[in-house]
Amino acid sequence: MASAPRWVEAINKALSHPDNKGKIIYQVATVDASTAPHARSQVHRAFMNPEGRPDLPLLVTSTDVRTPKVAQLRVNQRVELAWWMEGSQDQFRISGFAHIHPSPAAPGDASQPTPIPAEAAALKALEATTFDWEAKRLEIFNKMSPSMRASWCVPRAPGSKLDSYEEQKKWPREVPLEPQNGEDEKNLEMAKSNFALMLIEPISVDWVELGIQPNRRTIFTREGEKWTEQLAIP
Amino acid sequence: MASAPRWVEAINKALSHPDNKGKIIYQVATVDASTAPHARSQVHRAFMNPEGRPDLPLLVTSTDVRTPKVAQLRVNQRVELAWWMEGSQDQFRISGFAHIHPSPAAPGDASQPTPIPAEAAALKALEATTFDWEAKRLEIFNKMSPSMRASWCVPRAPGSKLDSYEEQKKWPREVPLEPQNGEDEKNLEMAKSNFALMLIEPISVDWVELGIQPNRRTIFTREGEKWTEQLAIP
Questions:
Q1: A167 belongs to a structural domain
Q2: Cα Rg of chain B (Å, integer)
């Protein structure tokens, strides 16, 4: 069986470094319809791969389907994320395609997954193996904390206008998986419908090791379905 | 006199939080000629503003003039950076224009500063006050550590192919400001010629406070030369 590219091991090794505890936040860059860049912090939830294809890893993260990034990804699916692990001084820059899998209950067109680009071999492989996207979406949703889950119950798109902090007082603070009452049930349904799975399929990874002297840099590139690596000038 | 927008104070306050010690690294997103996004970590060096115009702040960072980001900025000067301050759980997303001021000694076209967009009021104001770009560039260069300065002495563009780690052994490890010999002098000249000043002019700032409950979000927008702020849904 094909094996995972070496950069996955490098990331896992860096994550296990005691000084990198909790360093599961990276900054994801996208491009909007007017070709302006955007960047925001997201939480790395897991790696995954199509069954039997550890050589085609994907990163699992999530979003609110109403955020501008989803609209941006419907226009341009290219992303690059910068993952800075301060403790070990490692930087991983991961470039590739993002795929949004929303809830089938999201309103109107928002329920449509983003199209899968022809070059996105891992996403294509998932599609070919009739991967259960919805089960994966719910698996990640169910792992979230009740307070995190409440963040998908804001009444309008994140980033949209708020008249006063007073309004926030009416929003749920926690959305438990086991509703205790009708209010909890309604909130759970809303959170579940706004929560979208976001998968990132890397096609190149640029790893800089600033923690060692002289610094090292390795660039991993996928051509077709094959990963190659090349030393580079830091 | 016009005063600094409130987000500058918010960043400085977050930076002074004891748990945010050393959090001067942000991830800067750019767009390349094929409209793919890119993101990398950069070090925040300082704020600055045109004389008498604290209402038009800029962020000071730097780069090697040979990096792909400089080529990207020559095509598209829009940038957005995400500044995550883990200790206080503040995120600042700063969107605007980047300006590269290279060394006049950089080879050929690389010595040309990037053009200043008409909407870039702060950069325009600097230009109008005959700001001494080169003096600023050297001020920042001179503040760098000797080992940081050595990073601009790599023989080819950062990111380009390296045949083996053996080659690195010939590169200088330190470039002191006061050369002790001809080798030091040559290295200082090379570092100085590859070092470019990078200024970022913000036109909108999206501040999310995840350290307080309920979370807060404030979006600052510059229209013309005037900053306004609006509460937003986190």
A1: no
A2: 19
Mind listing the pLDDT tens digit for each residue in A183-200?
999 999 999 999 999 999
Number of folded domains that form chain B: 1
3-state DSSP call for residue B171? coil
Question: ipTM of this model?
Answer: 0.97
Q: What tokens does B12 get? A: 């400085």
CA-nearest residue to A90 within chain B is: B41
Residue B59 tokens read as 């962020």
CATH classification at residue B88 = 2.30.110.10
pLDDT tens track for B92-101: 999 999 999 9
Strands B25-31 and B78-85: antiparallel
- For CA atoms A162, A168, A174, A180, give the dihedral sign: negative
Q: Answer whether A35 sits within 8 Å of B31, measured CB to CB.
A: yes
Domain that holds residue B32: 6-149+195-231
Q: Mark yes or no for CB contact A27/B213 under 8 Å.
A: no
B214 interfacial to chain A (CB closer than 8 Å): yes
pLDDT at B182: 98
Q: Is B168 on the interface with A (CB under 8 A)?
A: yes
Q: Is the pLDDT of residue B119 over 90?
A: yes
Q: Which of B56, B44, B55 has its CA nearest to residue B14?
A: B44
Is B156 a member of any domain?
A: no
Q: What single string gives the DSSP state of each residue in A153-184?
A: G-SS-TTSB-S-HHHHTTS-S---SS-SSHHH
B233 touches chain A (CB under 8 A): yes
